[in-house]
UniProtKB/TrEMBL annotation:
Belongs to the glycosyltransferase 2 family. Keywords: Glycosyltransferase, Transferase. GO terms for biological process: glycolipid biosynthetic process. One of its GO terms (cellular component) is membrane. This is Dolichol-phosphate mannosyltransferase. The keyword Ubl conjugation does not apply. Pfam families: Glycos_transf_2 (PF00535).
Length: 263
């Protein structure tokens, strides 16, 4: 792991900021993604979180960190899922004095040119800035129709079950204030796959956070295989269903209690 440089606040309370990039078998993408992120925003550092990729991604990450002081690497012993990787990144960022963390995919689907706009939303007072594909100005490029339908359907189902107004609840390109993140009881988060994004969105809404969606254009990965699987979809469906049923039960209980009081 490279050593963290001595970095102080850069004139606002969301700096310094770090971009967390989880990797597993991303050797064909990681160099290009890191280079583009560094070039696209001069106020960020990068933390590559590698889950012992058998394709050598971790070794490439170490070489990048050795050549560039803004790049850091966190090696993990085994593949434990997206959620665990981000939780480890949040902890690392906190221990190393960062105030903001950005989640970004390694595969090139997230445009680094959008980093300044995500950070600007936090500078303007937001607690969470979500790079949204499904608000005006947002779009998805090069996805198969079934993949787009799955994503759209998951969003509709999740918003209906949880009563959310966030349009892109599964978005993986987002920025958080770290002081806010630690109010979300992260030690109780056990979502493994992309449900992790729904989980944190739901927690942020319940905590009353200022959540702002910033339009982005999402482009299908440049190379390598998608990590999406049936197990990830089932996890999201199960968790959203049980969270939603519990939420609606609480609403019903509250309504009945108000009715008794008013009666």
């Amino acid at each position: 792991m490279s050593q963290t440089p001595d970095r102080g606040p850069a004139g606002n309370d969301t700096s310094p900021a770090i971009v967390a990039i989880p990797t597993y078998n991303e050797r064909d993408n990681i160099e290009t993604t890191v280079a583009a992120a560094l070039a696209g925003c001069d106020r960020i550092d990068i933390l590559i979180v590698d889950d012992s990729s058998p394709d050598g991604t971790g070794e490439i990450a170490d070489a990048l960190a050795a050549a560039e002081p803004r790049v850091h690497v966190l090696h993990r012993a085994e593949k434990q899922g997206l959620g665990a990787a981000y939780l480890a990144a949040f902890d690392w960022a906190t221990r190393h004095g960062y105030r903001t963390v950005v989640e970004m995919d390694a595969d090139g689907s997230h445009d680094p040119a959008d980093l300044p706009r995500l950070l600007a939303a936090l500078d303007d007072g937001a607690d969470v800035a979500i790079g949204s594909r499904y608000i005006p100005g947002g779009a998805v490029r090069n996805w198969a129709l079934h993949r787009l339908a799955l994503s759209r359907g998951a969003g509709v189902f999740t918003r209906a079950m949880l009563g959310l107004r966030v349009k892109d609840v599964t978005a993986g390109y987002r920025a958080y204030r770290l002081d806010g993140l630690h109010k979300l009881q992260l030690d109780t988060v056990n979502s493994v796959g992309y449900c992790f994004q729904i989980d944190l969105t739901w927690r942020a809404v319940k905590a009353g956070f200022d959540i702002r969606e910033v339009p982005i254009v999402f482009t299908e990965r440049r190379a390598g295989a998608s990590k999406m699987s049936g197990a990830i979809t089932v996890e999201a469906l199960w968790n959203v269903s049980r969270w939603g049923l519990a939420h609606r039960a609480r609403q019903l209980k509250s309504a009945l209690r108000r009715g008794r009081i008013e009666g």
